[in-house]
Design brief:
about 160 residues; three-stranded antiparallel β-sheet; single chain
């Protein structure tokens, strides 16, 4: 059972994180992008205390995201992140909108470069070894502390 938490909050672990929670990403042009919690790593049935799957939404506005404004927003990019990303960037979880409300799911990826050893994964869930026809799937990446900001700037502000 997930522990209840009031919004906003800056998580130091995944204890209070759940898929669908969102946070604003302030952009250099004064606008906002949005990040979402996509999945918590439950390795061997235990919750990983620090790593989770984050998503950058294809959403930008002159006001921070909220439950209504995120309706229908699609996933732009995603990666595995450490909870330190929040404090490193001054992010706070502002609320929750269930992923299912927008028909969002974690995309299929490979866990390593295409080879006979590559596995197909859906976030942290291993689905099996990749068949050659699946070698074109993207590789699941781990993002550093500021990657989501760089991706949002590149997509919504440009250079």
């Amino acid at each position: 059972m997930m522990k209840m938490r009031e919004y906003p909050f800056c998580p130091k672990s995944t204890s209070y994180l759940e898929p669908g929670q969102y946070w604003p990403i302030a952009l250099s042009n004064g606008y906002f992008a949005a990040g979402r919690v996509l999945q918590i790593n439950m390795t061997s049935g235990a919750r990983d205390r620090r790593m989770f799957l984050a998503g950058l939404m294809n959403w930008c506005s002159d006001a921070p995201p909220n439950v209504k404004s995120l309706a229908g927003a699609r996933l732009l990019d995603f990666g595995v992140v450490h909870t330190r990303m929040f404090s490193s960037n001054g992010f706070q979880i502002e609320g929750h909108r269930p992923l299912g409300a927008d028909h969002l799911s974690v995309p299929l990826t490979l866990d390593c470069a295409p080879s006979r050893h590559a596995r197909v994964v859906r976030g942290f869930d291993i689905l099996g070894f990749a068949k050659p026809a699946q070698y074109s799937l993207p590789i699941l990446t781990t993002w550093g502390m500021g990657v989501i900001v760089l991706l949002a700037e590149g997509h919504f502000v440009g250079k």
